[in-house]
Amino acid sequence: MRLGIFGGSFDPVHYGHLLLAENCREACNLDRVWFLPAFTPPHKQNQRLATANQRVDMLHLAIAGHSAFDVSTLEIERGGVNYTADTLETIAQQNPEATLFFLMGADSLAEFPTWRDPQRILAAAIPIVVRRSGSPEPDFRLLDGLVEKSRMELILQHQVESPLIELSSSDLRDRRARGLSIRYRTPRAVEKYLQAQRLYRTPDAE
């Protein structure tokens, strides 16, 4: 099984996340894609952010009906700080029949050498690096010294170009806080959930 792992806060999930996952699934012949929400505190500074359980709920609503998509609550169940290397190794141990792929944006690749245990990450999963349509190819020389030549060749074979879509979770939170529409930015079921839970709203926008 070719299993893609897509980590993030998903606070909230939006169409940009879903399109990225679908492009990677199709381009790299993935059998499954697991959305892996990170554990984060329910409140940060003065913002009203979603709890871990609410983010999981929204992910389930967003991917409903897609047979290849699922949600992994591994990091949510662990709580606290989770590191990608530990998570991927755990998934690999629990799914020995799977070849793991790790979905990441080209912007994340630039910072990848500074991540905790990047060599362990590259050993556990093949990164699928996604760049925006029309943007230059990422500089994979950043991985020199972190991975063997044969592994690098596999990484270079799993690049994905994604259509440009200007969406971000922070923008959706901001629009909710100001009482603006988020229609067509996230699945309708997620939009209705946000309304029912009154998430990201400020008193002035109630």
UniProtKB/TrEMBL annotation:
Keywords: ATP-binding, NAD, Nucleotide-binding, Nucleotidyltransferase, Pyridine nucleotide biosynthesis, Transferase. It holds the Pfam family CTP_transf_like. Pathway: Cofactor biosynthesis; NAD(+) biosynthesis; deamido-NAD(+) from nicotinate D-ribonucleotide: step 1/1. Residues 5-175 form the Cytidyltransferase-like domain. It catalyses: nicotinate beta-D-ribonucleotide + ATP + H(+) = deamido-NAD(+) + diphosphate. Its EC number is 2.7.7.18. It comes from the Bacteria. The keyword Lipoprotein does not apply. Gene3D superfamilies: HUPs. GO terms for molecular function: ATP binding; nicotinate-nucleotide adenylyltransferase activity. One of its GO terms (biological process) is NAD+ biosynthetic process. It is an enzyme of class 2 (transferase). Belongs to the NadD family. Catalyzes the reversible adenylation of nicotinate mononucleotide (NaMN) to nicotinic acid adenine dinucleotide (NaAD). HAMAP family: NaMN_adenylyltr. This is Probable nicotinate-nucleotide adenylyltransferase. It comes from Lignipirellula cremea. The gene is nadD_2.
